[in-house]
Amino acid sequence: MPNLQTKQTKEKKEKISLFNRILEWVEIGGNALPHPATLFALFAVATLILSAVTHYMGLEAIHPGTQEMIKPVNLISIEGLHRIILEMVENYTSFAPLGIVMVAMLGIGMAESSGMINALIRLLVLSAPKHLLTFIIVFSGILSNVASDIGYVLLIPLAGVIFMAVGRHPIAGMAAAFAGVSGGFSANLFIGTIDPLLAGLSEEAARIIDPDYLVNPTANYYFMAFSTIVISLAGTWVTEKIVEPRLGKYKGDVPIEKIETLSPDEKRGLIYCTITSVFILGVILLGILPANGFLRGPDGSMLNSPLIKGVVAMLFVVAGTLGLVYGFASGKFKNDTDVVNGMSKAMQTLGLYLVLVFFAAQFVAYFKWSNLGVIFAVQGADLLKSSGLGVIPLMIIFIILSASINMLMGSASAKWALMAPIFIPMFMLLGYSPELTQVVYRIGDSVSNIVSPMMSFFALIIAYFQKYESNTGIGTIIATMLPYSIAFFFVWTALLIVWLVFGLPLGPGAELHYTL
Predict the structure, then answer these.
(1) Helical H runs in 304-454?
(2) Helices 133-143 and 116-126, interaxial angle, to 10°?
């Protein structure tokens, strides 16, 4: 018997060792990649070289919509050089995601710097009944994505404190919050900064095939709003049935912290915000309910209305107004300088993004000019057609591909800027809409976030866990979060299959199929 136990222990150690080695390979592989901005600069150069090589090879494809013969354009030529120099600035300033992300961030910045979002999250979590605590924490984590990184900075450590205060394992609380914030990254009941950002990239990619194609920031809203409830329920089940029983009872010596309740000033700010929200909702309803409402489109439709097409401007106005009301009512804002400083602080977080977008914009432009996007899309579509794969297996494969790439490259926007120009045109030629391709990418990106060492906040999560378990490492985090990742993959994939089977729209005017 001792020999058997020794053998089992040895096998277990070998399995753990193999698992850790795999994690190390993933980490080393990810760290070996250049910075995303450098990566896009290299891709831009590679596109120039590839345009010349394919031009001299005589590569060509027939556009299935126009029957036009498409040939590569050599960008390493006098004409190509002139175009690169003359249109470099325009490539950057006209890049679709740039302006919409900046405008959205100004509004979110006012709401965040006023303290309103912080207060809302604390109110939501602290007022939750004990039997709904896990659900509320996962749900709050998903909603926190509206305001950039506040979920990572505020909610995850707060969840650990709250779980410990009610006699539950603090790491289970942080795992639940992390699952919502990162694993449920693409789901939400509200339009956040990620929606216009990805929509802009999708629109640029779709115009490789259809120059007039528009992708609204609300393109995936119906699917993602429904996903919010589904993922919250899945995260709750995994926490209470798998993660918490595995962790057992917390036996550490960390003292129970006092949870900071809302101050009278914060409560007053939220009351004023509630009144303002009701007023804003009334104005919006007044503008859309009548057939000739002032927020409807020129033809009286909702689809072409400023409310849908101008959702980024609406986000700026609503979030900014509520932030102003809360800030002055709570005393956080004393004057206009405080407001401007808050907006300025929010814009500072975009510094790295602005650098990355410059190189991404050049890469996307060169890819479009060279005709490589159309040619690869046509040839890729022909290959997929010959494979005989239906829409469901095709989309499942794309989810797995997106999730796999996420293990080596953390930024959602950087990955999509790379993948969209290839896969959106390819799937459009197969009859699938850019909105569908985008939503499938978002599923794959989200489900692997919580187990990817390349996720930008992964080191911070380790530090949070180490507060309660000092020997926590990458393997600990991944072992804790893997059940969420697996559950989210199956639940989200099943939800996507339901959407595909019943042909449900993904958002306002966002259908599943595209016709050339």
Answers:
(1) 306-309, 311-330, 336-348, 351-369, 372-387, 391-406, 412-429, 434-449
(2) 160
**Residues 370-397 pLDDT 10s:** 888 778 777 777 777 777 788 899 999 9
Beta-carbon-side half-sphere exposure of residue 113 (alpha carbons within 13 Å): 25
Alpha-carbon span 277 to 270, nearest angstrom: 10
Residues 6+ apart with CB under 8 A from 312: 100, 103, 104, 196, 217
Q: If residue 508 lies in a helix (H) or strand (E), which one and from where to where?
A: none
**Dist CA 268 CA 237 (whole Å):** 36
Strand, coil or helix: 69: strand
In this predicted model, what pLDDT tens digit does every residue of 197-241 receive, in sequence order?
899 899 988 998 898 898 988 899 999 999 999 999 999 999 999
Kindly tell me if the per-residue pLDDT of 401 is higher than 80. yes
* Rounded CA separation 219/244 (Å): 36
How many whole angstroms separate alpha carbon 196 and alpha carbon 226?
19
Note the pTM of the prediction, 2 decimals. 0.72
At 5 the pLDDT is 45
Cβ neighbors of 186 (< 8 A, separation 6 or more) are: 194, 220, 224, 227, 442, 443, 445, 446
Helix (H) or strand (E) holding 61: strand 61-62
* Longest alpha-carbon distance in the chain: 83
DSSP letter at 430 equals T
DSSP structure class, residue 94: T
Q: How confident is the model at residue 515 (pLDDT cuts 50, 70, 90)?
A: confident
Q: What pLDDT is attached to residue 45?
A: 94
C-alpha to C-alpha distance for 42 and 427, rounded to whole angstroms: 25
How far, in Å, CA of 15 to CA of 12, rounded?
A: 5
Q: How many CA atoms lie within 13 A of 235 on its CB side?
A: 35
Could you tell me the CA-to-CA distances from 327 to 108, 142, 277, 312 in Å, in that order?
Answer: 13, 24, 15, 22
Percent of the chain having pLDDT more than 70? 88
Helix ranges, 185-243 (H): 194-206, 221-238
Kind and range of the H or E run holding 501 = helix 474-502
